[in-house]
Automatic annotation (TrEMBL):
Protein name as it appears in the record: Laccase
Function: Lignin degradation and detoxification of lignin-derived products.
Enzyme class, broadest EC rank: oxidoreductase
Listed cofactors: Cu cation
UniProt main location, coarse: secreted
């Protein structure tokens, strides 16, 4: 049997993830305990109808959400991306550490120039020391609104999970649906300075569900057997919103976050920020109940401005010999939209598994300390233009009041080939003008724009970063994602970070290891990581609107002295700007 869109080879393997069949891929060779898996992503337009409206969207292989990529720890992935649409594009493998393979990380103008119309690029990387739930998505403008899909890393062959073997595994992706063209939405926002128009619906596996008008037939239904354990791989691929999630009359056990195992804990409500993944065990009831159960998600939000304050619904349905057509359908209760305490309590439940088999390596001493403010700000309105941001300005966003401007050529290429004038190594280690970060905001809310400023780290430096929310234009949570690394969340709290007293409360024993963390609304979070992966690595807010407004920065991690501590040269097909 042949599968359209995938490279030909002598051996074709199909991996099954529960009731979902993984994308068929071609296995060509074994290496170092793993295998090489080849995929082909054809970027194509596809007509899709949701909420009784049809539009042409950008897809991978004509699928929305995109195809599932499945591999094992230790495997090498070779993914050829061919761009057949008018838009530029790049693909980011969200959460993959990309050890010495930074050319495959994907953010446009950071590690590569975007793939232009009619061009292709091969992403080639090995999955080292990781297993669990991640995802891939476009990393150019707002293209990831429709270009995203699950990336499932299974344990090595003959290895087991550190929890009960599930009966089936089910990826569930949260997304946002816009009736309008998302590129037009963000371009209008950047032009006028106003906040962008919000989405028209949230989705579960691409479907808005029955609580939206004209959407009853587009409902995700999870059919389960009684008395079984299911592994739900939850992925928040939404553009701009953190989400509460709950299944009526059911609790789940959290076992993994961002592809790292955690100490199991039971909850009936989850919070997932954009860019985060959470794997949970669902033990179904026995005998099968004479009822069905809503799976609901809606946003958490504390900031100013508008938001898509709607609810997406899927249905958990038991296989029942009675086949009840009119069975009652139960709804869960979700927290209030601004339930910050619920979010904080949930976040504090996460601890690394920290066993002999799955150890952690938290930096106990720190070589480099940084204090970054993260939040909103403004830009002055250009002359002869009317702007619709706060007090006639334009919305902006920044870290340490620096609104990061993307260069016109990729940072990694510029660094590797020592090109001058593309970036400057003077990103501030701390705010240039300290203030009461969570108190009364300063009168001047303008950010600093322009040059691409970066932080430079020696190879293998131990790094601590305090990320502090501000009250400028309203306190709100910011999900910060670090490329190329996982980090340990050693502390978090509300108010202003206290450098004298707060570090004594840090958890250096079993802190959760993540790639994306929400900076608490009106609070701070402390992370640590070991800078042992040379290259250029983006750190940014995973609200795409804040990313578009400049809430990002980049780290340059220098090469080490040994050959296996150096970044290799770029591949020959690396896109050109």
């Amino acid at each position: 049997m042949r599968f359209p869109g995938f490279l030909s080879s002598a051996v074709t393997v199909i991996l099954f993830v529960g009731c979902f069949m993984a994308v068929p891929e071609v296995v060509t060779a074994k290496h170092g305990g793993g295998v090489t898996r080849h995929y082909k992503f054809s970027i194509r337009m596809k007509n899709i109808t949701r909420l009784c409206r049809s539009k042409s969207i950008v897809t991978v292989n004509g699928k929305f959400p995109g195809p599932r990529v499945v591999a094992r720890e230790g495997d090498r992935l070779v993914v050829k991306v061919v761009n057949h649409v008018p838009n530029n594009i790049s693909i980011h493998w969200h959460g993959i550490k990309q050890l010495r393979s930074g050319w495959a990380d994907g953010p446009a103008y950071i590690t590569q120039c975007p793939i232009q119309t009619g061009q292709s690029y091969v992403y080639n990387f090995t999955i080292t020391g990781q297993r669990g739930t991640l995802f891939w998505h476009a990393h150019f403008s707002w293209m990831r609104a429709t270009v995203y899909g699950p990336l499932i890393i299974l344990p090595r062959r003959n290895e087991s999970y550190p929890f009960i073997k599930p009966y089936k595994e089910v990826p569930i992706l949260f997304g946002e649906w816009f009736n309008a063209d998302t590129e037009a939405v963000i371009n209008q926002s950047l032009q006028t300075g106003a906040g962008p128009n919000v989405s028209d619906a949230y989705t579960l596996n691409g479907l808005p569900g029955p609580l939206y008008n004209c959407s009853g037939k587009d409902t995700y239904k999870l059919k389960v057997k009684p008395g079984k354990t299911y592994l739900l791989r939850l992925i928040n691929a939404a553009l701009n919103d953190e989400l509460f999630f709950s299944i009526a009359n059911h609790s789940v056990t959290v076992v993994e976050a961002d592809a790292t195992y955690v100490k199991p804990f039971v909850t009936d409500t989850l919070v997932i920020a954009p860019g985060q993944t959470t794997s949970v065990l669902l033990k179904t009831k026995s005998p099968a109940p004479d009822a069905a159960f809503y799976m609901l998600a809606r946003p958490y939000f504390t900031g100013m401005g508008t938001i898509d304050n709607t609810t997406v619904a899927g249905i958990l349905k038991y296989e029942n010999p009675k086949n009840l057509e009119n069975a009652p359908l139960f709804k869960p209760s979700l927290p209030a939209i601004n339930a910050t305490n619920v979010v904080a309590n949930f976040s504090n439940m996460f601890k690394s598994l920290a066993t002999n088999k799955f150890p952690i390596n938290v930096p106990q001493k720190v070589d480099k300390r940084f204090f970054f403010t993260v939040g909103l700000g403004t830009n002055p309105c250009p002359k002869n233009q009317t702007c619709q941001g706060p007090n006639g300005t334009k919305f902006a966003a920044s870290m340490n009041n620096i609104s990061f401007a993307l260069p016109t050529t990729a940072l990694l290429q510029s660094y590797f080939f020592s090109k001058n004038g593309v970036f400057t190594a003077d990103f501030p280690d701390s705010p240039l003008h300290p203030f009461n970060y969570t108190g009364t905001p300063p009168n001047n809310t303008h950010v600093i724009n322009g040059t691409t400023k970066v932080e430079v780290l020696p190879f293998n430096a131990s790094v601590e970063v305090i990320m502090q929310d501000t009250s400028i234009l309203g306190a709100e949570s910011h999900p910060l994602h670090l490329h190329g690394y996982n980090f340990y969340v050693v502390g978090q709290g509300f108010g202003n970070f206290d450098p004298k007293n707060d570090p004594s409360k840090f958890n250096l024993v079993d802190p959760v290891e993540r790639n994306t963390i929400g900076v608490p609304s009106g609070g701070w979070v402390a992370i640590r990581f070991q800078a042992d992966n040379p290259g250029v690595w983006l750190m940014h807010c995973h609200f795409d609107v804040h990313l578009s407004w400049g809430l990002r920065m980049a780290w340059i991690v220098l090469n080490g002295k040994l050959p296996n501590q150096k970044l290799p040269p770029p591949p020959s097909d690396l896109p050109k700007c």
